[in-house]
Design brief:
The complex is a heterotrimer.
Chain A: H1 4-25, H2 36-67, H3 69-84, H4 87-102, H5 104-133, H6 137-145, H7 153-188, H8 199-208, H9 212-242, H10 262-288, H11 290-324, H12 333-364, H13 366-381, H14 388-398, H15 401-426, H16 430-438, H17 443-477, E1 479-482, E2 485-488, H18 492-502, H19 506-538
Antiparallel strand pairs in A: 1-2
Helix pairs in contact in A: 1-9, 2-3, 2-5, 2-7, 4-5, 4-18, 4-19, 5-7, 7-8, 7-9, 8-9, 8-14, 11-19, 12-13, 12-15, 12-18, 14-15, 15-17, 17-18, 17-19, 18-19
Chain B: H1 11-23, E1 27-29, H2 30-36, H3 41-53, E2 57-60, E3 63-66, H4 68-75, H5 78-90, H6 93-104, E4 109-111, H7 112-122, H8 128-142, E5 145-148, E6 153-156
Antiparallel strand pairs in B: 1-3, 2-3, 4-6, 5-6
Chain C: E1 3-14, E2 17-29, E3 34-38, H1 45-53, E4 60-65, E5 68-69, E6 77-80, H2 92-98, H3 106-119, H4 135-148, E7 153-157, H5 165-180, E8 188-192, H6 196-202, E9 205-209, E10 216-221, H7 233-246
Parallel strand pairs in C: 3-8, 3-9, 6-7, 7-8
Antiparallel strand pairs in C: 1-2, 1-4, 4-5, 9-10
Helix pairs in contact in C: 2-3, 2-4, 3-4, 6-7
The chains are: A mainly alpha, B alpha+beta, C alpha/beta.
């Protein structure tokens, strides 16, 4: 019987052999291939740094949120706002900001890492916060009664509590992060000075040079790295994390292929322990000397306040500059948003039309599940953005950027929706299905009153994430520079990109980002949040 | 009215209890009853309290004895049972008060929040919501007071035979 | 004869092994039968019920209903589920109307639904959602729904197991009241339970299955007058008798 892991491994080997074939046989034709390992490593390192910072941020911010009542009051809503800003919207602003400080390519590198960081940090922070607030009360009390409280409980209580959600969120963060990594590399590739060497720029360069074969090699390298991480790090980590889950029944799913990665596990365990030991020792040392403690506390406050003050200064400065000379283009923003919104809606409608029946078919059909789901997981792991260069080719050939853009947005949206819907159908209780079968509820009635309502909660969560992905893809899809020629679709993404790369205008960048964020927040409040509430109160099986 | 507590049991549980006491001949020791159902004494107390409150049982020296109206209830069919229960539920002080409040209002409706506030003055507890659910369970079963979960309002169900008391 | 289970056997495949779950089950169901199928856990009684209702196919043998082979959506056979199986987005009335909509007009469906809602004592709860109902009330909706299609044969899979002891006591009595009402469907009941007292209390016929593979060990006619009293020594004798056949 074919096991899912073996299947994926097969795909990896297939891709590796193709890549190697190109490498050895076409070496002479494609000198760029030499750089591929270097590009791959650079991309991977950017991801690694971003993840590390995100992890530190998540643990600290999450811990403060969970333990400090007064801080939570403004820190939680703040985090919420940060989450609703479309991440790619950050990028141009971040580029300008960091270049202002660090000059040249270093600034862009930091901007890229910052971008990936923002795509990872918020959901991991929520994960830490949720983990800490759901530690069963008895455990906290037990630790306290043994004299383990505060920082001492880091190793025995806090970090273990966070492990399951952190692992889960890390996996999500990495797949989201790939998207933004490639995006930042692609976007920066538009400018010679700011180009970041990496898989993203490799893809763009090979596409523009017309070397499709090369582009495919780059694509498979990306997929290979992603799948290798999946098989050799994430899957094993998931079963390791299960050990730390509060309601784990100790069962391994039959037929699951899990690579036993004891060495790396032990490495993590060591890092884990060292990290907590260091923090505890530091904490004890600090506590011993009240002066040091107070000094740290006040300098911490001072640093925080001065950072906030600096940010506020920049913000006020840009806003006043803005108000004093409103760029003429600013008046086209509402229209641009409308166009972008229409594009997203079109892609969304297409999404719905195919994902709902597909999800039902796949969830109900055992053979389909076995073969189609791994294939789709591989397809889904390719960040839609990596296909952007291919989109450009299609556009050039068939002359319609609009269609290419909508297809790209569609790709950036559909997997979220599809996988959520499949999970939704699978989670319909067996008895509910039996009711339909035994009482002869079929056809239109079955769909209208049984299946579609049952899919509603997962449809909502899937749609919310799909739109998030959609907004981000839009920013890339609406603006292309090909062979020195600029092509665009009128929309908010275009305005943003233009104001960053073509005719740098920080006020426009600021305005565009703000209007995007405001639009998204309005949509959230008016549509998504009420829908979510309704779905989970009225349509969830308990 | 001083703070009291309301028995947290559903009508079904109360009738179940009465049937068990009936099987034992109309009177039974509470502890033994609990044992029959594989329950702790604590777990059966709310149903006993409910049976008492509705006038279906008298409790003395740890024994539960059925009242004549309880006997009538047990001999009756499903429809008749509903009528008997309606009369008894309508007689409960707290529910009488609630009903009178509704009668006084022009649209005979009251928001859930206001009901909870009222209940908090009568029952001292942290989890007032669970008491709300039980009381609404009783009044809905009796067909006296209804509840619309979408608008979160309780409403009076007009009964011809129950004037304001 | 209402229904006939003829030589039904069921084999499962698990990890390449064949497991015989049911072995040559023969049951004939007559008018006015209230049958309880009891047996140790894993004996296949739930599987047998699903085969009778038509949700599963036997590996060999057949289930005949009034002489014809049974189909899963046979309107004359309906089912009550252990975990109630109500749709959370439909009200009590809508949950019942749902199973009528494919064969009746909207008005007819509404009237029938109201009739059975009243029959189980849930009048007043028509527009209430399942999440607001206690377990006992949810199962009453389950009963009403199963009766609304006016079945000849009612099948129940551990209908009281998810309820607390007091509520299930109440519900059992109400079930018997409905059963005793000649104006109410069904004509026969087959119920699966692991609770022997429950079986002796309700059934006029108890079928005991052996541990896997499930074979019929006994088919007893319960000769106790209704209403039955659990405290009656005669009652206990029957309970003991059934227990001795199971072990």
């Amino acid at each position: 019987m074919m096991k899912k892991g073996h299947f994926i491994l097969g795909i990896i080997l297939f891709l590796i052999s193709i890549t190697l074939a190109f490498y050895f046989f076409d070496f002479i034709d494609f000198p760029e291939l030499q750089l591929l390992p270097y590009y791959a490593v650079s991309s991977f390192l950017r991801m690694g740094f971003a993840y590390f910072f995100a992890l530190c941020f998540a643990l600290s911010y999450g811990y403060i949120l969970a333990t400090n009542e007064s801080a939570r009051k403004f820190m939680l809503p703040f985090l919420d706002i940060l989450q609703s800003v479309p991440i790619l919207g950050f990028f141009p602003a971040a580029v300008l900001f960091f270049i202002g400080i660090f000059n040249g390519r270093l600034g862009v590198e930091i901007a890229a890492v910052f971008l990936i960081f923002t795509s990872m940090a918020w959901n991991m922070t929520f994960g830490v916060y949720e983990s800490l607030t759901s530690i069963p009360k008895e455990l906290v009390e037990a630790s306290n009664s043994f004299g383990i409280r505060g920082w001492n409980s880091l190793e025995s209580l806090i970090l273990p509590a966070c492990v399951p959600k952190l692992v889960y969120n890390s996996i999500i963060s990495w797949s989201v992060g790939w998207f933004f990594l490639v995006a930042s590399e692609i976007i920066s590739a538009g400018s010679e000075t700011y180009k970041l060497p990496g898989l993203g720029s490799f893809l763009i360069d090979s596409t523009y040079a017309g070397k499709t074969a090369l582009m495919l090699v780059g694509l498979s390298t990306l997929v290979i790295i992603i799948l290798l991480l999946e098989l050799f790090i994430w899957k094993p980590m998931q079963s390791w994390a299960n050990k730390y889950s509060y309601d784990y029944s100790g069962e391994k799913k039959p037929g699951e292929f899990i690579f036993d990665l004891r060495i790396i596990m032990n490495l993590f365990r060591v890092i884990f322990k060292t990290f907590s030991r260091i923090t505890v020792t530091l904490y004890i040392m600090v506590h011993r000397y009240k002066i040091v403690k107070n000094l740290l506390k006040y300098s911490g406050y001072f640093l925080l306040i001065s950072m906030l003050a600096y940010l506020a200064y920049i913000l006020i400065n840009s806003i006043t500059k803005l108000l004093l000379n409103m760029p003429v283009e600013a008046y086209s923003i509402p229209q641009a948003i409308a166009y972008s919104f229409l594009r997203l809606s079109a892609a969304y409608v297409i999404c719905i039309i195919w994902t709902i029946p597909a999800a039902y078919f796949i969830a109900k059909n055992r053979n389909a599940s076995l073969y189609l789901i791994p294939i789709m997981e591989v397809a889904a792991s390719i960040p839609a953005i990596a296909l952007f260069p291919a989109m450009v080719v299609i556009f050039i050939k068939y002359g319609s950027l609009e269609i290419a853009a909508i297809i790209l947005i569609l790709l950036g949206m559909q997997w979220y929706l599809l996988f959520n819907l499949i999970a939704g159908v699978k989670s319909i209780p067996k008895d509910a299905q039996n009711v339909a079968t035994s009482f002869g509820i079929k056809g239109a009635l079955y769909w209208k009153k049984v299946i579609l309502p049952a899919m509603f909660p997962s449809f909502t969560t899937g749609s919310i994430t799909a739109w998030g992905g959609g907004w981000n893809t839009l920013i890339v899809a609406e603006y292309i520079v090909y062979k020195g020629q600029e092509y665009h679709l009128f929309g908010i993404g275009y305005l943003l990109d233009k104001a960053t790369f073509e005719t740098p205008n920080s006020s426009m960048v600021l305005l565009s980002v703000i209007s995007m964020a405001v639009t998204i927040m309005i949509l959230n409040r008016l549509i998504w949040k009420p829908l979510y509430r309704k779905a989970f109160s009225k349509y969830k099986f308990d | 009215m001083e703070n009291m507590t309301f028995p947290k049991s559903t009508i079904s549980e109360i009738i179940g209890l009465l049937e068990a006491v009936n099987d034992a001949g109309g009177i039974e020791d509470a502890a033994r009853l609990a044992g029959d159902f594989d329950l702790e004494l604590d777990e059966i107390l709310p149903s006993i309290g409910g049976a008492e409150l509705l006038g279906f049982a008298n409790v003395m020296d740890g024994n539960i004895e059925l009242t004549p109206v309880a006997q009538k209830l047990l001999d009756a069919g499903i429809r008749e049972r509903k009528n008997i229960i309606r009369d008894k539920v309508a007689d409960v002080e707290l529910i009488k008060e609630l009903r009178n409040k509704l009668i006084d209002l022009s649209d005979h409706k009251m928001r859930k929040q206001d009901v909870l506030t009222f209940l908090r003055t009568r029952i001292s507890t942290v989890d007032i919501e669970s008491y709300f659910r039980v009381i609404i369970n009783w009044t809905r079963y009796a067909g006296i007071i209804g509840y619309n979960s979408d608008s979160e309002e309780i409403c009076l169900i007009t009964q011809v035979s129950h004037p304001k008391i | 004869m209402l229904a006939e289970i003829k030589n039904v056997s069921k084999t499962f495949e698990s990890n390449g092994n064949k497991i015989l779950a049911l072995d040559s089950i023969n049951i004939s169901v007559e008018d006015n039968d209230f049958i309880c199928i009891v047996g140790p856990s894993g004996c296949g009684k739930s599987t047998l019920l699903r085969i009778i209702v038509g949700l599963e196919k036997p590996t060999s043998g057949e289930v005949l209903f009034k002489g014809k082979e049974i189909a899963p959506d046979n309107p004359k056979v309906s089912m009550v589920f252990q975990n109630f199986a109500l749709f959370p987005w439909l009200t009590v009335k809508e949950n019942i109307e749902l199973v009528l909509e494919s064969t009746k007009t909207a008005r007819e469906a509404g009237n029938i639904a109201c009739k059975y809602i009243t029959a189980v004592g849930l009048d007043g709860f028509e527009s209430v959602y399942p999440r607001e109902l206690s377990g006992g009330m949810k199962q009453r909706v389950g009963f009403a729904r199963a009766l609304a299609v006016e079945p000849v044969l009612l099948c129940m899979d551990e209908p009281f197991s998810s309820l607390d002891a007091l509520t299930s006591q109440n519900l059992k009595d109400e079930l018997l009241m409905l059963w005793g009402d000649i104006n109410m469907p069904p004509d026969a009941v087959i119920m699966v339970t692991h609770n022997v007292e429950e079986a002796v209390y309700l059934a006029n016929r108890i079928i005991v299955l052996s541990p896997r593979p499930g074979k019929i060990v006994a088919d007893l006619k319960i000769e106790l007058e209704r209403p039955r009293n659990r405290k009656d020594p005669e009652f206990y004798r029957w309970v003991d008798k059934v227990y001795s056949l199971i072990v």
